[in-house]
Amino acid sequence: MENSRETGSTNDGAASSQNANYYDIDDILAEEELVPVVFYKSANGVKVDPTAEKDCVEKGAKVELPFWLAQELYLRQAVSLSIPTCFNQNTRREIQADAACVDLKSRCPYFYEFGCKIAPLVGDRTIGKMLLSTFQMRYKEILTKAHTTVYAPASKSLAVLTKEEISLHEAARSSMAAFKKWRIGGPRFQRASVLGRKRKPTE
Amino acid sequence: MFSATRANLENDNRTFLLSVFTGIISRHQRHKIGFHSLKLTSNHSKSCKNKTKSLFSFRSLSLSEMAGQSDPHISLFSPQEIEFMAEDELVEIVPNIRMDPLNFISGDFGPFFPQIPAKVPLWLAVALKKRGKCTIRPPQWMSIENLTHVLEGEREDQGAFQAVPFHYIEISRLLFDHARDDIPDIYMVRSLIEDIRDVRLHKVETNLEKFSATSAVKISHLSAMEVNVVRPFVVRSLQAFYKHDNPVVMADLDSASDRQPQVRQPQVPRNAQRQPLKRR
């Protein structure tokens, strides 16, 4: 799997050179999310399921593949994509009921990124709207309180946040913490680390 | 547009447009800091009087302290840097020494005569004060009447902010730290300013809840420190709103910032390009 990612991306050298997110760990992890696909063609020498008897995938097989692989296969018209479980009707109904309480992290830690990536491929325009309304509600309910909430890593409200939301929350919290630290004071002048360093004896 | 926004921040000190383009603004501001240090070093070499030299060595210390941002992605400025900028505000001092004019790039200050008030930058005032060469006159707005008035205004009008000096948090902190004997009723003044700050920060937070699917927000009368505290959060959430609000723009944004282009690529050319690989 890892190998095919490597080769796959070196092939489109031009694309990767203009790809600023190429080394972004969050972007890579977001593309690891599984997408259910159906194979149009049979593929030899591929072992998707480790328990499978033969090294081939038959035509019409339903398999879950990580997004980066599914996307490449889809662009070669080898598979058809269907909507991942984290965007199915059940989840949507839960989100409509109360977005702030839905545990998005366990469904998909990169809910928004993944949604943006998958939406154009499955051709579902409602995903975009759903992402926006979800973010709006959750922003209002949880995130705007990020500056004042007392930080408790195990608190329940934080456990349901996706990675994107956590980074927002963290940004707010750390800037507030820096401000409070400044306000309280402490050493006004610190010695630059360069000045204190002792020269190593050269041998 | 950026320069206009920036000019607002600098000159007017009253309006700050929090926009998704803050990255560019921040680069402007870094330039300013670079210029600062340039100015200071040139001062250092120019004025060779012993008296002033010691002042500058103090100043350059505070520069080295904040030379680099610890993490540019989290917050564009550290509170220390905001304080550094606030030190350029002018305050009135009453020196008790005689001293020749000081010529800085930002202007000439002095000459100084005992008991004759003079206007100097805050950092200079603090440095002189530390050496017992002057007393600092607290600014006009730091009177109990004015602060009580502002605090009442903040509490009554939940929607808008009162006009306060752009650097009121930093200036008051510096004066409380270094010139506490020059401020009448310091305990009252200090608690009033802390109340004002808390009320305003709470108000900023309630204001944040009003954001929904907008790419630019205008909040008047925010002060430097308040803007800086919410900046990382606001910028990121506005970006997220912007991205989800408009999928077309999102795609444009992606190509503009050279992000993942694969999704948008039309299928046909892609397949054509992939042809040899497919055969293999």
Automatic annotation (TrEMBL), chain A:
Domain DNA replication complex GINS protein PSF3 N-terminal: start-end pairs: 23-74
Keyword presence, tRNA processing: no
Domain spans labelled GINS subunit: 87-182
Keyword Nucleus set for record: yes
GO BP annotations, alphabetical order: mitotic DNA replication initiation
Keywords assigned: DNA replication, Nucleus
UniProt subcellular location: Nucleus
GO cellular component, one term: GINS complex
Primary subcellular site in the record, as a coarse category: nucleus
Family under the similarity heading: Belongs to the GINS3/PSF3 family.
Protein name: Uncharacterized protein
TrEMBL record, chain B:
Disordered as annotated region, ranges: 256-280
Stretches assigned to the DNA replication complex GINS protein PSF2 N-terminal domain: 78-136
Keyword tRNA-binding recorded: no
InterPro entries recorded: GINS_A, GINS_bundle-like_dom_sf, GINS_Psf2, PSF2_N
Main location: nucleus
Biased composition (Low complexity): 259-280
GO biological process: DNA replication; double-strand break repair via break-induced replication
UniProt KW Cell division keyword: no
GO CC term (a single one): GINS complex
Domain GINS subunit: 141-237
Residues in coiled coil: none
Localisation per UniProt entry: Nucleus
Keywords, comma-separated and alphabetical: DNA replication, Nucleus
Family: Belongs to the GINS2/PSF2 family.
The name this protein goes by in its record: Uncharacterized protein
